[in-house]
Amino acid sequence: MSHVLDSILETVGETPMVALHNVVKGSKHKFFAKIEYFNPGGSIKDRVAVKIIEEAEKRGELKPGGTIVEATSGNTGVGLALAAAVKGYKCIIVMPQKMSEEKRALLRAYGAQVVITPMVDPDHPMSHYNVSKRIVAEIPGGFLANQFFNPDNVAQHYQTTGPEVWKQMDGKIDMLVAGAGTGGTLSGCAQYLKEHKPSVKVVCADPVGSILYDLYYHKKIVDPPGSYKVEGIGEDMLPGNVHLEKYDGFVRVNDQEAFDMTRRLVAEEGLLVGPSSATALVGAIKFSEKFETPLNIVVVFADSGRQYLSKAFNDQWMVENGLLKEEQIKDSFNRVISAEEALKQYSK
């Protein structure tokens, strides 16, 4: 049975690369999406979760019967909970209040305990960063995954994601664009790609409200951290895995641009991705406009839109958050209607 895998964890990685067409029509550049929702937990964070756990096991930091604790926007938590279920660990995930109900439900489905923290500054005692540290300190056999500062995060993208991109593009890549939450994806991929082709541009698409853009261009915070609806990318502090010196530029993307593109991607390309993926694509389009020579641009699509059905794909939520106007949904085709209404609509 040579085609049978030992566990679901062996399906992590080797995600597809897909050319984009309709949403980038008119551009001189070619855009390609690295579809990370093909990972079993639905996001690029499965890669990081498996790596962090396996390395912790090797070092003896995580022993049988242990408990994995992590502060996360949700996706790393899902990856950790998935791996914990396979390996027999308990898992406690601490996440900010703004994260979607779908993420909370997924975590519970995998057997994790979910701890919700208020939306406060990162140095506040009740921030998800600090609550996770306080919890792990009280648990015998507790292990903090620490994705924001754990170098295994960057190492995994250097060892897997970067090489996959290079191979799938046959080395014909001029730019890589992604968002940065922990920074692991961009930092690891940047290191690998630049070793093979120093001219490759590595660009971060940053939500308006994140401080990373300012830290890159001004070396200090110019605009204080603000709130934004996109989940999983952007920061109110500087993670240790955000290696700014490896990047070639930042571009800001606001919520309206991100959520509009999220809906366009599924409607025009059949790609049901989350708003962070759309942010990366909008950023790639914006940043590419300064280049006259046609480029091959890879955009990392980090997770699935199925985790945002109650938000990005919920008309009422979009209206309530000022991202959609009531008149835009009155005559929309993709509504749920009754059988009577349908028969009346389609009667000759």
State the major sheet.
6 strands, mixed
Count of helix runs: 12
Radius of gyration: 20 Å
- Named CATH topology of the largest domain: Rossmann fold
What is the tally of beta strands? 10
Tell me the count of domains. 2
**Beta fraction of the residues?**
5-15%
Helix-strand category: alpha/beta
Distance N to C terminus: 56 Å
Uncertain spans: none
Overall mean confidence score, pLDDT: 95
Order of strands in the sheet with most strands: 1-2-10-7-8-9
Named at the architecture level, the CATH assignment of the largest domain is: 3-Layer(aba) Sandwich
Helix content: 25-40%
- Overall spatial form: globular
H/E element sequence: EEHEHEHEHEHEHEHEHHEHHH
What is the CATH class of the largest domain? Alpha Beta
Keywords: Pyridoxal phosphate
Domain Tryptophan synthase beta chain-like PALP: 9-303
Organism: Bdellovibrio svalbardensis
Protein name: Cysteine synthase family protein
Short key terms for the protein model shown above:
single chain; 348 residues; alpha/beta; Rossmann fold; 6-stranded mixed β-sheet; 4-stranded parallel β-sheet; 12 helices; globular
Could you give a short description of this structure?
With 348 residues, this protein is of the alpha/beta class.
